[in-house]
Design brief:
Blueprint (H helix, E strand, L loop, with lengths): L2 E5 L1 H10 L6 H10 L4 E5 L11 H6 L5 E5 L3 H10 L3 E4 L19 H13 L3 E6 L3 H9 L4 E5 L1 H4 L5 H14 L3 E5 L7 H5 L4 E6 L1 H10 L1 H13 L2
Parallel strand pairs: 1-2, 1-8, 2-3, 3-4, 4-5, 5-6, 6-7, 7-8
Length: 233
C-alpha cells in the first residue's frame, strides 16, 4: 500500500500570521496520523517562514516517521544530524519563491551534494532527493548513494502536456536504478489517481491541498479521503 506523508507546513503558516502558538502544527500532525497518515513532512526553510526550529523536535517526538525537507546547506545538515529524523528530503530553495518551483539539480551539484549526503547517511538518516522526472537527474541520484528519490509532480499538476508520460518513464528509470520512488507537489483529489499508479511508487507527500481543504471538511476527513484515493490503484 502506498504511504501518505502529510506536510503540515501551512498549519504553521497560519500560526505565524498572528505570531502566536495557534494553530499548532504538531497537533495537526497528531490528527493527521490518527486519520490515516503514515508519516509527517515538514520543511524547515532558511527564512523560517512557516516551520520553526522549536517545532522540529516536537514533531520528531511523535510516534511516526518524520520527513525533514530542507535545503542542502551546512546549517540544515547540522540541524538534521543533531535531530535525527527518519528521513531528510533535499530540495532546492530560493528566498523569493512562494513554494518549491522545481526539482533539485542533482547532476549540476553532484560535487557539493556528495559530502552532504554522506553526512546524513552517517547520522542514520534516510536521504531522499526531490528531483524532476529526468533520466540524468535520476541516474545521478543513484550514483550519489541516495536510496530514495521524490519526483516533482508540479508540472503535471498544472496540466503540462506529456507530463504524466514523463513521470511514468521516470518511474521505470528509478526502478532500473534500484531507487525507492516517492512523488509530490500540487496533488489533489482530482489528479492524484494517475500518480498513485506509477510503477513502484512507495509514498506520496501532500500538504497544501490537504490543509486548504481541511478548512471546509476538517483535517481528519480530508486525510482519510486522500488515503482512500491513493489506495485505489
Amino acid at each position: 500500500m502506498i504511504r501518505l506523508g502529510v506536510n503540515i507546513d501551512h498549519v504553521a503558516t497560519l500560526r505565524n500570521a498572528r505570531g502566536g502558538s495557534a494553530p499548532d502544527p504538531v497537533a495537526a500532525a497528531r490528527l493527521a496520523l490518527t486519520s490515516g497518515a503514515d508519516g509527517i513532512t515538514a520543511h524547515l526553510r532558511e527564512d523560517r517562514r512557516h516551520i520553526r526550529d522549536a517545532d522540529m523536535p516536537r514533531l520528531k517526538a511523535l510516534d511516526a516517521p518524520l520527513n525533514f525537507e530542507m535545503a542542502a546547506t551546512d546549517e540544515m545538515i547540522r540541524i538534521a544530524c543533531a535531530l535525527g529524523p527518519h528521513a531528510c528530503c533535499l530540495v532546492p530553495e530560493r528566498r523569493e519563491e512562494v513554494t518549491t518551483e522545481g526539482g533539485l539539480d542533482v547532476a549540476g551539484q553532484k560535487g557539493t551534494l556528495a559530502a552532504k549526503i554522506s553526512l546524513l547517511k552517517a547520522a542514520g538518516i534516510r536521504v531522499s532527493l526531490f528531483i524532476d522526472p529526468d533520466r540524468k537527474q535520476i541516474e545521478t541520484a543513484a550514483s550519489l548513494g541516495a536510496p530514495v528519490i521524490e519526483l516533482h509532480t508540479g508540472a503535471y499538476a498544472h496540466g503540462g502536456a506529456g507530463e504524466l508520460e514523463r513521470l511514468q518513464k521516470a518511474a521505470l528509470v528509478a526502478a532500473d536504478c534500484g531507487l525507492e520512488l516517492h512523488a509530490g507537489h500540487g496533488l489533489n483529489y482530482e489528479n492524484v489517481g494517475p500518480i498513485a499508479k506509477l510503477q513502484g511508487l512507495a509514498e506520496l507527500n501532500i500538504g497544501h491541498f490537504l490543509i486548504g481543504q481541511a478548512i471546509f471538511d476538517g483535517l481528519g476527513p480530508v486525510v482519510s479521503k486522500m488515503k482512500s484515493l491513493i489506495s485505489q490503484k
